[in-house]
Design a protein that fits this description.
CATH class of the largest domain: Alpha Beta
Helix content: 10-25%
Structural class: mainly beta
Strand content: 35-45%
Number of helices: 4
CATH superfamily of the largest domain: Nucleotide-binding domain of ferredoxin-NADP reductase (FNR) module
Shape: globular
CATH architecture of the largest domain: 3-Layer(aba) Sandwich
Order of helices and strands: EEEEEHEEHEHEEEHEEEE
Strand order of the largest sheet: 10-9-8-7-11-12-15
Radius of gyration: 17 Å
Largest sheet: 7 strands, mixed
CATH topology of the largest domain: Rossmann fold
Distance between the termini: 30 Å
Number of strands: 15
Amino acid sequence: MKVVISQIMENKSVSDGIFKLTAEFSGGMKPGQFFMLKTLDNSFLLPRPISVNDVGVKEVTFLYRAEGKGTSKLSSMKEGEELQLFGPLGNGFDMQELKGKIAVVGGGIGIAPLLYLTKQLSRNAHVYLGFKNCVYTVDEFEKYAGQVLIVTEDGSIGEKGFVTDYVDFSKYDAVVTCGPEIMMKKIITGCKEAGVKCYASLERRMACGMGVCLGCTVVTKNGNKRACKDGPVFMSEELI
């Protein structure tokens, strides 16, 4: 991990309140890791944790929702401006464990850390993406995955209903998920019933990103763990 002052290469709206920011960065990282992002003008005190959406040769891309002071400020930044990146942080997905046919299930902005993972899994990944009504960055998943299914609650695009209704867990060697907790709970239950391994990427409020402040506690069967240091990716059987 390192702290760098990075120049923004692109920062654009991809849907209502959803933005994609690409910044200069050189260094390796694993799917599922994240960075702490901060502006240089100290317009907000604590850096914001944002997961890695994609990785290029000398760049990193973040997909995020502008909903608070920090992310709203980030969304207003322009190409050529600079910001502070601290990372990559967290454990990420263990690619050695993800062998065979993998279901990648994302909901809403929870799809953000799943694109780089899908690129790594390539055609072994069957991707299921659930949205309320606005769909975004689906075409990027379609470039790499063996299969992509889109579900919207109102049926305006793709299938109608909830994405959890369309996954046949028994068809897969493992399932990876990120999104609203109610969605992930259903997926974890479905995997347990089917006897399939499940990995969940959790979202928590974070202040430091290094496990010092203990503000992102996750209750597990092995005691309290930190989403930033021990996670954000956990095996579902660990979670309570």
